[in-house]
Amino acid sequence: MKNKRKWKVIGISFLGMILIGLAAFGYEYYKLQPKNHFTTVPVVSTGNKSEKKSLSEQVEIKEPIFNLLLIGSDQRKGQNVGHSDSMVLIHVDLNNHKYHAVSIPRDTRVHLEGYGYTKLTSVQYIMQATKGPQKGVEAAVSAVSEFMGIPINYYVETNYWGFQAMVDALGGIEMNVPFDVKLTHPWYQENLNKVISAGTHSFDGKMVTEVVHERYSLGNGEYGRQQLQEEALKGIAKKALDPGNITKLPSLVKSIPEFILATNMSTSDMLSLGLSAKDFDPEKQLVYSQMPGQGKKLYDDILKAHNYQLVIDQERIKDISSNFQ
Q: Model-level pTM?
């Protein structure tokens, strides 16, 4: 009788532990749901030069809707500074599972307070060199925010090596290459002048990095590279958010320090965003835009010389920005 009673107590205790574990998991999962998690968001920049916010300040939001800036730096291994080589601004609407994205050209003419007019790509570099990495990324975010006239809540910065690690962490991706790409400035010399034909390819991180870096051989230059970057991001999102990979999302998020240079998103922010975006279909849920402009040789107040800069039509900026409010 005593043994039976002992095993009964052990069984009840074990069942209790399981129930407590399930309850804790259920509570955590409940908290990660976007409507419960994203009740407040930070504001890195308001989009208004005269209105400054503390980076630690959180603002309440009624719906899980916010703006996220993805920054691709050309910072190389062992270096502490780099240029903002690519920027994609995303309006995230987790209520309706809709996403608006726009690529901001690296050569866009912007104004940097205290310095004057320069290229967008130079803002992060000069601020990193003079005030450190954190001030550099914050300045880049603010430059885009003020240029677009919209607030930016979150940012994620990586470089090409981090991008490569991210793709490899997923086990490679399927990527649509919309046109032939000749690698004229590869990171790896063995790929010099290699041609990637148009079509869908299975790429590891190394080759994705090579493809999204190319622009010199493309007929439409920087805009062609933006298209390649869009397709790579689609491939990454599809792979990471595939229903079969959702259970791997927490371990992927934990490995983020390996390929993220800077971000103000917490682990729980990323998990909530990832869980809410499962079954992501870019053809139905993503609207992607580019910002054509007029290339001009203008004076750069940082370099103290004339260089190629892109002047974006103000009406085009307003039209695209209306989707980010």
A: 0.86
